[in-house]
Amino acid sequence: MDRQIRRLGIAFVALFAVLFAQVAYVQVVAADRIAAQPANAAREIRAEYAVERGQILAFDRRTVLAESIPNPDATSEYTFIREYPHGELYGQLTGYYSRIYGRSALEQAMNPYLAGTAPEFTTQNLTDIILGRPKKGGTVLTTLVPRVQLAAQRAMGDLQGAVVAIDPRTGNILAMYSNPGYDPQPLSTGTNQEIEAAWRDVTSDPGTPLVSHAFQDLYLPGSTFKLITASAALEHGWGPQKEWPNPHRLDLPGTTANIENFGDEYCRGGAKTVTMAEAFQSSCNVPFAEIGVALGAERMSGQAQAYGFCQTQPTFSIACEDDTIPFDLPWQVGHFPEASYFDNNTAALARSSIGLDNDLTNPLHLALIAATIGNGGTMMQPRLVTEIRDATTGQTIKTFQTEEYSKPLSANAAAELRLMMVSVVSGGTGTAAQISGVVVAGKTGTATNGKDTPPNAWFTSFAPAGSGETPRIAVAVIVLDGGSMGNEATGGHVAAPIAKLVMEAYL
Amino acid sequence: MSASAHASRGAVVAAPRRQRRARTGLAAVLVAVVASLLAYALQAMGLTGERPDNLVAYGIVFGGSSVAGWLAIRYTAREADPVLYPTAVMLGGLGMAMLFRIMTANGAQEVARYQAVWLAIGLGAMVVTLLAVRDIRQLDAYTYTIGLAGVILLLLPVVPGIGRQINGARLWVKLGFLSFQPAELGRILIVIFLASYLSQRRELLTAGVGRLGLPRPKDLGPLILAWGASLAVLFLERDMGASLLLFGVFVVMMWVATGRWSYLILGLILFAVGAFIGYLAFSHVQVRVDAWLHAMDPTLVADEGYQLSQGWFALASGGMVGTGLGLGSPTLIPYVGSDFILAAFGEELGMLGVAAVLLLYLVLVGRGLRIAVERHDGFEKLLAVGLTTVLGLQVFVIAAGVFRLIPLTGVPLPLVSYGGTSRVATAVILALLLRTSSGPWFPALRRKRGATDVPTEVRA
Q1: What ipTM describes this predicted complex?
Q2: With an 8 Å Cβ cutoff, are B351 and A35 in contact?
């Protein structure tokens, strides 16, 4: 019998060897391929939640916009939960971090850093393994200045719309707020049922809080587009003092429609001619339509492109294929038709020159344009994140440099346009943005918004804009559907006071 | 070694060897206890980030009962194999830690506590078995009684009124508040019966009569009965795993007893036929085979193949060293505490952890077979082989099922996974192996003359 027993022993060793071989195959040889199967997503998500995800901090490096804390429910599968201490205030910028609905905004864009999976973390992760330290994600430092962001939220109050504030010298986003916003907290923590309920709430809200008016949607720019038309004229050598005919209305060739000034008024009391500077100060449509038509489609289209507008065949629904201005978050740059669209369509060119045809923009893009003028004609890339730091050691792991995007204006043209903008605030349509002791440059806009809804009110500005001063903040504001003033709304009355409060908070 | 031990070496060899064995045995138990408590602490820290507040209490109870079990073996089975018990403590402790980890995550920690109680009951069953079976050859005297009792226990779940069908298989018996799987214990009785019967009839079965060399039908009769019982388990209770184990043990014991390959080959053919008929007869067998072959197929991965594919995902996510105890997501696997606890080890302790657990079982198997080789009596040899095979095959069947080498059959992983009856049954197997290895225990004689003076070969 002993022979059989020994053989039986060998047989058991062989059987177990087969088990070892299969374990080695599943756990090592084919492990990556098996673990990467889509059906394994739930486990990946839990693994992700087991890492202490990095913080998102404001520019002051103290104010926490998002952080992970140990789950108070120790029995939960999810070791950490995500907290957004300021809720709705930064919600659209941090985005949500939901195990059901994924990630958005910075949580998505900076995920490799926040989760600590970016290649820059390789050394750190190895050190953590050797020292037995728990793996931590990196800290994301943003450019957001809490007092400006707070001022933007307070200034908007109940009005629907958005504010963007940029440092013209660096492209740093100082504040970016859109109302209505949403609190990422309920989308990111809680039971599946709670998260699903919060998602239903936020997606069924008619104000579409998940979409920021500041940078994820596009609107007719109205008279703020005169900044681009004026830029094109100045670049072409037509100075601020060049005189333009000033009829009451402008006949649009090939159509029965006319271009009228705002409220069908006589520009500057109906003088025979006005200078471009005067027309700019009072935001007269007729002269600017003349300027645009006189410049021609090529120059208008070219100037818009220099400012980063995406050239589209003008169907609103077509998404811009090659986004021009890089940004840390996915965003919509402004649209302006390519020159060929205006062939045999002078009427469209005239309307486009005053921002009322197929041109589209949003507060972020408009703030970039104002910042460019304030920055002497150089457009800086917008920047929301300055650097990534290791959460344990504080070492800088990656820096995001300031970068020039383009130079759409000569320094001379920028200086002239700046003076024109100063006159708007000192004695034109934008006097509501005046700040005592500070020279403010601005431009108003009031864009029709469909037949039955009140207009959208725009204002964009930068300060300080006195001679020899370097502007430190550029702002763009949109108030949707007339805000509190309904059909009577204008950029000067509704949007300019908001821009003033935001600039004051920073200066 | 002390000087006195050296001095006494020539005179009395047994005494210092026994002391050394005892000391290493206790040390091994303590190592197993410490490792188990470490695993228990780590899983809680992995889950919550904090040391479990009941660690000291758990340590005292677990360590205390483990040492108490060792003392009981020292008293009742002095010459017993010193490796079996510490290995079992290690497996039980690791399994307990993993069960606490799984059940805590599932919000059902009391389930793990019940299992801890069952582990203690198993320890008690081991001691009771050692006390009751003072000489393993006592069992050889009741060949048919034990065989009949085994068959009755196997078939008990079929009896209307007390049988319960759970998850397609009819394995449960409910008597009042207590429900258990009698097949687990019935299997042991069948093994005792086979050891007894085969040791008595070896020559007849080996030699055979007639031109074909087949044994006389009279000698084969009880064997056919045992084979019929295993088929009955398959067809009446629909329990593939139990049937496979029973049949495997049966074939292996026949082969070991007779040394005739024809029994092994015949057994394999009969098994193949039985398995094929089972496949054709039962839809739940077809589903399992299908799930086994195509678990990762997109059409099955979320349905029939869900448990198997999640088990594979757990193993693959664990990789070489695992996520760490309490840091993986093994609870994504359905029934992870019973069928798939090995996948939980794979996820959180990695390939190395799984290999360690399997190696512990291989140690049990190796020691069990060593006992079989060391004993001189045919019954004792066959009993040790049978008990070891039940244990080893059971581990292989569930592990290979989890790793998708064979279709999954829901048998528990002995000592480790969820299952009260299984813990008690494994403890009884261990007790019988310990008793076999240590020889008979005569407390009355020992008090006067010492255990080693008792004659070891009573049978003629």
Answers
A1: 0.90
A2: no
